Amino acid sequence: MPQVVFSLDSTKKFTEQAIVGHNRWHGDIPAQVQVKPGDSFRVHCREWFDGAIHNDDSAEDVLNAPLPAVHVLSGPIAVEGAQPGDLLIVDILDVGPIPQEDSGPLAGQGWGYTGVFATKNGGGFLTEWFPDAYKVVWDFMGGIATSRHVPGVSYTGIVHPGLMGTAPSGALLAKWNAREQALIDTDPDRVPPLALPPLPDSAVLGSLTGADFDRVAAEAARTAPPRENGGNQDIKNFTKGTRVFYPVFVDGAKLSMGDLHFSQGDGEITFCGAIEMGGFMDLHVDLIKGGMETYGVSENAIFMPGNVDPLYSQWLAFSGTSVTLDGVQHYLDSHLSYQRACLHAIDYLQKFGYSAIQAYMILGSAPIEGRLSGVVDIPNSCSTVYLPTAIFDIDVRPSASGPAQVEQGMSVPTASF
Amino acid sequence: MPQVVFSLDSTKKFTEQAIVGHNRWHGDIPAQVQVKPGDSFRVHCREWFDGAIHNDDSAEDVLNAPLPAVHVLSGPIAVEGAQPGDLLIVDILDVGPIPQEDSGPLAGQGWGYTGVFATKNGGGFLTEWFPDAYKVVWDFMGGIATSRHVPGVSYTGIVHPGLMGTAPSGALLAKWNAREQALIDTDPDRVPPLALPPLPDSAVLGSLTGADFDRVAAEAARTAPPRENGGNQDIKNFTKGTRVFYPVFVDGAKLSMGDLHFSQGDGEITFCGAIEMGGFMDLHVDLIKGGMETYGVSENAIFMPGNVDPLYSQWLAFSGTSVTLDGVQHYLDSHLSYQRACLHAIDYLQKFGYSAIQAYMILGSAPIEGRLSGVVDIPNSCSTVYLPTAIFDIDVRPSASGPAQVEQGMSVPTASF
Amino acid sequence: MPQVVFSLDSTKKFTEQAIVGHNRWHGDIPAQVQVKPGDSFRVHCREWFDGAIHNDDSAEDVLNAPLPAVHVLSGPIAVEGAQPGDLLIVDILDVGPIPQEDSGPLAGQGWGYTGVFATKNGGGFLTEWFPDAYKVVWDFMGGIATSRHVPGVSYTGIVHPGLMGTAPSGALLAKWNAREQALIDTDPDRVPPLALPPLPDSAVLGSLTGADFDRVAAEAARTAPPRENGGNQDIKNFTKGTRVFYPVFVDGAKLSMGDLHFSQGDGEITFCGAIEMGGFMDLHVDLIKGGMETYGVSENAIFMPGNVDPLYSQWLAFSGTSVTLDGVQHYLDSHLSYQRACLHAIDYLQKFGYSAIQAYMILGSAPIEGRLSGVVDIPNSCSTVYLPTAIFDIDVRPSASGPAQVEQGMSVPTASF
Amino acid sequence: MPQVVFSLDSTKKFTEQAIVGHNRWHGDIPAQVQVKPGDSFRVHCREWFDGAIHNDDSAEDVLNAPLPAVHVLSGPIAVEGAQPGDLLIVDILDVGPIPQEDSGPLAGQGWGYTGVFATKNGGGFLTEWFPDAYKVVWDFMGGIATSRHVPGVSYTGIVHPGLMGTAPSGALLAKWNAREQALIDTDPDRVPPLALPPLPDSAVLGSLTGADFDRVAAEAARTAPPRENGGNQDIKNFTKGTRVFYPVFVDGAKLSMGDLHFSQGDGEITFCGAIEMGGFMDLHVDLIKGGMETYGVSENAIFMPGNVDPLYSQWLAFSGTSVTLDGVQHYLDSHLSYQRACLHAIDYLQKFGYSAIQAYMILGSAPIEGRLSGVVDIPNSCSTVYLPTAIFDIDVRPSASGPAQVEQGMSVPTASF
């Protein structure tokens, strides 16, 4: 086990820890930890809602989730010698739930959750059809997740951080704020909103205090979206063994991470989210000096996934095109076509005895693959979603004998305003 | 080898064959061939431009490609007993280039091509950056493609039909035409157009003649987009061993297929297209009577991919978000974020000595994977594109020693209006 | 399709073909075909018993199989410039059943067979428990084999040549004959024999005639065993896409091949054999001049398997140790421990309704893996045999609900002296 | 983390622990721990030599290894309700090095070792060519092993227990002792010995004392070989996610385990051994009552490997036949043919700058595959050994440009009597 450089106590809130992390992006948040190229180290990560979501059978906590406070991140970690223009190599040596704690009230202590926000809280990918708040709880055993709220499925974890990235420079941050505000301004009252502007309320900025805190809190970017620094990419393939290359925008790179997922489907379509949990990451860092120019990497993370993900050899796939459920034709809209593919999968799974929300939860949390299969065939894009058949206890393949039925138990907790 | 039920002579044009296929969708195009559930049979398929694209070093043919005449399809094939509401099971027993012909002037005779249309001809996924017409030619040997126009890469073929589907009912066809015309009407003069309306010019409708021909030609849908009947889905995973389930909308199902690809990346981003070729398909069909209702499949093909695709274990991946190159923030636009991911990959490959168009051609034709990684993190979606490192002769991984350089030979043929 | 350099007519016997191959190893058998490094070419291959085994429900043909006449090989093929000390690179571009012929009396025409010899004919790996002659017939469709004699299984073909190799030099041949005769001499009357000495009876030696024929027939080695030149290695992983490196012992290398298999388990434990068939191979050859010394390859073929074999992700495995069924302890005998592992698998499969011989046939013909798991733990070696569960229609995993039962149809044809 | 039921303190010897395990097999060794079907629990395991092998650059410790004291096992663990005739299901939920301890003097604390015994101590699979004692030390980081004694290789761990099994009944134990003594009696003075008889010296028998200890010590079987109860099978595929089914021979089943390996090649050809270490196992147990009869499993463990092993897609393979290096022909001896395949691989790797012993160490510790490719082609069996090319930093494929050379550092520690 590498040395723990960012330690968390599961019994304390994020802001009461020995080292306080942050929940906004800003280059002026001081580094809390210093490492060197070639170092390996462990970082503890808090589940993204800092313990507000409980291991119970109610979705009230998801309905009332403290959105301004996310994501609670570990960091910033300064890497000695890192300068703007470098590529920061981050090897994910290991990542998992909270070590040595397999029971307790905090997600990551042997359990995790998948939620869907109510529409007015941000909804999810399919919020038009699932307008309320929903939650399912997953139990972890032996690297496998099962749920009392979703019968007949078990997934081998593809544990990964939903969020990791370097700090933006001042110029980059200004660009973010300007372009996102411009989008918000096109429809400022939209529910859910088009984007999230800086929000001093609930901001946590590490060791900053006083005037510095106020200035940074007013400028710092929210952590919801992925951006040029990586950030909340929610790439389910950032599993153990993955090597990521991040652009460096500030001295020391100032790496941060969090939002750990036990498992997730491509897209994290449930939004709140994958199978959410706290836990740890073992990381190794190195630098390619001047690597941004050398490799033409200016504004995105590139990566090489690890080689120990669960191997599946049989998939059932659904396709969708960019026509709305109401029959309106859109032009090459891959977002829409992926929605339609997911809805087709949900329709299908209901024939096996699943409720619609259970099927949605499966798509959000299982290691499904979402592909941009066709993006040029005007006017329809074709997106596809692949389900590994091995995650189901029953045979979910179509056949002349008709669909088998899962045995239902507890239904999915739901809450609405 | 199963019996050939739809035979083509490589030396004759599509309209001069013993059985003439079709290039429009309409339920009234008579079935040319009758098969029974449980039958296995072979179908020959013509390359989608009917031989207009040549094995040479010029892109003039792509610039002047006969767009109204695509896609030249084999079929319709009636399946005995198929009725609206059934699911048609289609097993792809085998699919490959033109059998026993490994040289000749027709794509599929030992070679294939990847093209990019000029913008005014429809462009491609990245037409803003690649406005001209381009072409590269690939040679097939031992199931592997290499190109004199793209150095240092070789791909094991993932041969598949870009297009396969059942015939639409009259009501379904009317729905298609109405919704697509409505889209066109929003910007009727756009170049490239938003959608393609019915076009009697160059229509080929099997055995139809006279007034029937005229009526059907005026109504029949173009084959470019994927729709409820499957159609031009361009799903690269329809390889040997795949089982597809199609909704049946008319008596006999009336299955048609074509647009064979030797290889393709997710999205077929080059548009003209994958590695295009003529060839054959060996198919087995069966029915699930009433399967559409039984399995909740009303308007999309579902499928189970085969298990003999080339296995890769190391990938280099690039991410993109829904911000334009000009810095404009879009809202959860996965199409845009996939463009940005692809552009990032192109930037990167240029550092290894590839030209931009060569890199684009690789992304369009190699077995790359395009994923909808994050679709909820407002305002940015996150799309990713994965390149198998094994397709490159040189090591394309980032390292402290900097990028190796491919040895350039012939450049990519280009043509413009 | 590459040019056919060694053509066979399915309607004619091996000795009546336009080019007559050979069924013994000797450096003086003249090359029938000349190719150059860099060439690609097609070779037809006859099934190893030259059509003596029929597509019927009797095992009399296996009982009376013409053993002295095997293996009927295609070749020798001289490679221009090849000299002793070189490594001959052979790329298996493609390999399959008889092209364009999917029905007919010859194995490879849409069907193949797996046999077990009676003990006095050579038996099989488990001849003590299966002393008679047995045969099952497999039908090929879409690259998948099924059998009327073995219910409830279907295998995706892993087509490969059981036998391929270069010609021995005179010195090497003399070494073979001497060491094998020495073994025979230790128990010359054993049934089955310990080894097979040269046998002029039924020898086919290409274009040789007269005194040359007589001399060579008296010296030439039988083709049964693998040796320094490759030969009858029966490595099931010589599938499409494989690159093999053979030592060159004579000028021109004199490559020969045959004994095609549609599928086989590790070990080819049924002996007669895998799923046997005639067919074709598309090959590409090249040379590494002086490669034997450069790479330390003096007396064995080395190879790199292809990447398009069927992917399985779930296996059921059985172990065995080197103790006989009678309870006698042997010392680190991996042959025995593999027998015991296979017998354990056969015991197990019988609980699912298979007959013992059906289970044996499955192990011989399905893509099972046989591993030398432990070879040092005195006195027991540990061998293991892995069955992909996906080849079975029923669930063959152990569970509290007990074994499902396959539905039996036709039993396995059996014959005895 | 499941509850620890068998805890070890890394600073104390095996016999000084709170619960003392055992190093012999006997049904009368009392269970130390009681679990129930359905339970999950953690077990600590001591490295097999109880700390006698050090993280240094000398092989004296391997030369003088305390052989009578192996293997130090954790257990026996009684499973409530288990009776003779049942199948005990053991799920390997997780397995790894010593948790939370990544440095220290005990193998498993961030490091492990691979050794080869001197011939008089038992040697290894290739002891004729490697008669001395050798040792290499591996460092673990991020689930990957590298060694200062073996340049240019790194392996993703395939962590597994070399040894796990149930206790024998009295009758079964008597059978073991009788058959192994009979083998020893055929050559009682052989070096290394043919088998290991019961040995009271150094016996550790859990809580037994006094006359019971003496009686059991005189009867109990050594742990070196695999037997009907599983035992020291050294199956490298018992990785995380594996389900094993053990026959139950005594009330409570009395499961024990140990001899953890960070990585191993098929065969564990180095004998001392794989990459040896102490660590932990998380297990889940269940019963199939009467399962031995139901499933025909009487005298072997059957298993289903997990699905998270590292994925490799390119292999370089070597073949061998059953002819000795001196040219003596053996009859279908797969042990010999695997030796020859391994020696061929060693010859080959030396051309890349490896010493012979380094190559041997790679084969013993890397995730190589050893296959029984042909076992019927008299007189030669054909065994093959597959090396994943991705474990090497340099390109180890044969090519016209000749072998690259690894950069040598520290040589392999060696010691001899």
From TrEMBL, chains A, B, C, D:
Pfam families in the record: FmdA_AmdA
MF terms (GO), sorted A to Z: hydrolase activity, acting on carbon-nitrogen (but not peptide) bonds, in linear amides
Entries under InterPro entries matching the protein: FmdA_AmdA, FormamaseFmdA
Sections of the chain in a coiled coil: none
NCBIfam families per UniProt: FormamaseFmdA
Name of the molecule in the record: Acetamidase/formamidase family protein
Organism: Amycolatopsis carbonis
